[in-house]
Amino acid sequence: MLALGMQPEETATAPKRIKELEVMVADVIVETPDTSTLVFFTGNDRLDYKAGHFLTIDPHQFEALDRFTSFLEHLKGKAEPPRAYSMCSAPHERYLAVTVKEERFVPGLTKYPPLLSPLLVKRTVRGMGLVVTGFTGPYTLPPDITSKTDHIVHICAGSGSVPNLSILKFALDHHPTLRHTFIYSNKTWSDVIFRDTLADLSARHPDRLKVVHTLTREENASVFGPSMRKGRLDQALLSEMIPDPTAPMVYLCGPGISKWDREAAKEAGIAPQPRFIESVLANLRAIGVPDSRIKRESYG
User: Fold this and answer.
1) In Å, how far from its chain's centre is CA 63?
2) Which of 153, 106, 74, 98 shows the shortest CA–CA distance to 258?
3) Which residues pair with 253 in a beta bridge?
């Protein structure tokens, strides 16, 4: 999900379907201590978007943020832009929902304190009205996906699972010949977004969906098993999950090198350190997955 201001791998031209929608918050689902799903009532049974699309929310509409927005605009010398958030809902579902992970200010790692995500995650309540703009983004399934492959490999970290969940739900419902492998990296089991949803989908589609979690900082040994691995998502696991590297289409979403990372590295005279996206891309290429078979979206 473009839940942390994700940057698509390519610039999408704005289609005619992009428009402002007045929505009401119908429900707030706490996914993890720092992540919430906002379910919107739109008044429409069907909305024209694709699985994997995102919408945007303008911070200027929130009175509670006025002083913070003004301060950041003064500091930056430019207007604060809308923030992009991927939808976890799928087009065939009768609701619209985004999942937002709260950003944190980390001295030396983030340049500015977060503006919108703390409000959306911690201060959004049922009945609250807001305006969203949707829908767009290149991180979607092509209409002819079944002519390209019968296997989608989802590789996600953190809130990168949001657009992939939308794609997964839509494909399970509309493309019955597609199989899915969902590889999901987090620090601990408590950080895993949609863990119950993914378990339920896996139980309902055992022949079509395999979910594998990788946990980098989990100390509780009892959580590990066949679908739970300890450590980082490495080349060995990718080789195990992708025995034929030229066959599947890979949908990769998670944190990548940001413009702030590049600026800081340039000032220090060093190359920016690879993050999840860059590390996984290197491992995918090492096992022989062609770039043409990889779709990616990063946030930073």
Assistant:
1) 27
2) 106
3) 156, 297
The Cα–Cα gap between 209 and 178 comes to: 9
Q: What are phi and psi of 100, to 5 degrees?
A: -120, 130
At position 125, the amino acid (one-letter code) is V
Q: Which domains does the chain have, with CATH numbers?
A: 2-136 (2.40.30.10), 145-299 (3.40.50.80)
Contacts 24+ apart (CB under 8 A), 279-283: 279/232, 279/233, 280/155, 280/233, 280/238, 280/252, 280/254, 281/252, 283/233, 283/234, 283/235, 283/238
Query: What is the identity of the amino acid at 154?
Result: H
pLDDT (tens digit per residue) in 180-233: 999 999 999 999 999 999 999 999 999 999 999 999 999 998 888 888 999 999
**pLDDT tens across 16-56, in order?**
567 899 999 999 999 999 999 999 999 876 788 999 999 99
Peptide bond preceding 40: is omega within 30 degrees of 0, i.e. cis? no
Length of the chain: 300
Q: From CA 169, how far away is CA 146, in angstroms rounded?
A: 16
Alpha helices in the chain (DSSP H): 66-76, 117-122, 145-148, 161-174, 195-204, 235-241, 259-268, 276-286
pLDDT for 169-192, tens place per residue?
A: 999 999 999 999 999 999 999 999
Interatomic CA distance for residues 108 and 165, integer angstroms: 32
- What are the tokens at 196? 């119950």
What is the per-residue pLDDT across 240-279, written as a single tens digit (0 to 9) for each? 999 999 999 999 999 998 887 888 888 888 988 899 999 9
CB 60, CB 169: distance < 8 Å: no
How many Å from the N-terminal Cα to the C-terminal Cα in the chain?
Answer: 12
Quote the pLDDT of residue 5: 43
